[in-house]
Amino acid sequence: MVVGAGPAGLYATFYAGFRGLRVVVIDSLTELGGQVSTLFPEKAIFDVAGFPAIVGRDLISRLQEQAASAGAVYLLGRTAIGLTDRGERGLLITLDDGAVIAAGAVLVSAGVGGFQPRQLPAAAPWLGRGMEYFVQDAEVYRDLDVVITGGGDSAVDWALHVEPIARSVTLVHRRSRFRAHESSIDRLLRSSVQVLTNAQVSQVLGVEWIDSVEISEASGGSHRRPAQALVCALGFVADLGPLAGWGMEIANRRILVDSTMRTSLERVFAVGDVSDYRGKVRLISVGFGEAAIAVNHIAALLRADAEVSPGHSSDRPAPVTAG
Ligand SMILES: Cc1cc2nc3c(=O)[nH]c(=O)nc-3n(C[C@H](O)[C@H](O)[C@H](O)COP(=O)(O)OP(=O)(O)OC[C@H]3O[C@@H](n4cnc5c(N)ncnc54)[C@H](O)[C@@H]3O)c2cc1C
């Protein structure tokens, strides 16, 4: 079983199929792709091997296409909450809807755990009525007055991203300095985005849908500004949640693994952002490598006739993919 369908989990799914294993994939979110789909689907990624540049959404659909050959069962919108270790008889994993699934091994690719957006109290009641926590599809903002709150990479990138198609973009940050990449801040300051620092959205107004926001400045003044869309990009709070109670050794909210990606539990492996070891680097490309290591060791654990080394994929017939 794979817990977490971010990039590491999707690649692990492909790899498990490649090693002839049957796979069930669980994710709390209703769509595949983890942080990439949720937080930066439209950003270009430049450090994935083989792709000089690839947009987040496209990377996930390529991974999904590659994983199709595994014929995995996807249980989306469900959270893995409990684990019972039955020794030689394998593991039982309990989901939040009460389902219990038996598995020979579990690969945890849970990223930063379940993540919840940081709330802006004045805006929370407007979720789905003009307020969102993520920019999924920039087209939605065409010809609208858009207000974005936040001072990190997501807020700055999204402001730049919707600027060419929105009627106006205002970026509101409660501090004086942004925490975003320097080159993005340079672009921001050269763009038509109106940047308001030392300020915050104190009130959201409208009837069915947002029509304006009240912006309060630290200096004491306030003004109203038209807004049919508000994006609260204040970051997210990550929580390992139920996984923390599974009995794996954990430090600093990460699951400790050995060089085979095995946790302190015999049949549970962890890869991607959620795992930790000396020298760990949290990148998509690293998660892919870890997934291959873990699945090859899982194959050897589950099947007496399987070796750790998989041989070369290029020696095999082409896998059958969906579509
Ligand atoms: C704005 C931004 C830009 C980035 N840019 C880059 C970049 O350019 N290059 C790069 O290499 N990396 C980048 N990263 C980092 C990259 O996104 C992560 O390293 C990568 O997503 C980690 O993949 P993962 O599969 O380990 O976990 P995630 O992508 O976090 O996926 C984990 C999944 O597990 C699920 N989950 C968690 N707990 C449970 C549970 N109990 N039950 C069921 N499901 C669960 C979550 O819902 C989630 O879908 C960026 C990150 C951010 C935020």
Automatic annotation (TrEMBL):
What keywords would UniProt list here? Answer: FAD, Flavoprotein, NADP, Oxidoreductase
Q: Would the keyword Oxidoreductase be found if you checked this record's keyword annotation?
A: yes
Question: Which residues are listed for FAD binding in this entry?
Answer: 27, 35, 40, 80, 115, 273, 314
**InterPro entries, per database record:** FAD/NAD-bd_sf, FAD/NAD-binding_dom, Fd--NADP_Rdtase_type_2, Ferredoxin-NADP_redctase_2
Domain FAD/NAD(P)-binding as annotated: residue spans: 1-288
Q: What is its EC number?
A: 1.18.1.2
User: Broadest EC class?
Assistant: oxidoreductase
Does the keyword Coiled coil feature in the UniProt annotation? no
> Which reactions are catalysed by this chain?
[thioredoxin]-dithiol + NADP(+) = [thioredoxin]-disulfide + NADPH + H(+); 2 reduced [2Fe-2S]-[ferredoxin] + NADP(+) + H(+) = 2 oxidized [2Fe-2S]-[ferredoxin] + NADPH
- Pfam families hit by this protein: Pyr_redox_2
- Required cofactors, per record? FAD
Q: Which Gene3D superfamilies match?
A: FAD/NAD(P)-binding domain (3.50.50.60)
Q: GO molecular function terms here? A: ferredoxin-NADP+ reductase activity; flavin adenine dinucleotide binding; NADP binding; thioredoxin-disulfide reductase (NADPH) activity
Cofactor binding annotation: Binds 1 FAD per subunit.
Family listed: Belongs to the ferredoxin--NADP reductase type 2 family.
Q: How is the subunit organization of this protein annotated in UniProt?
A: Homodimer.
The protein's name = Ferredoxin--NADP reductase
Organismal lineage: Bacteria, Bacillati, Actinomycetota, Actinomycetes, Propionibacteriales
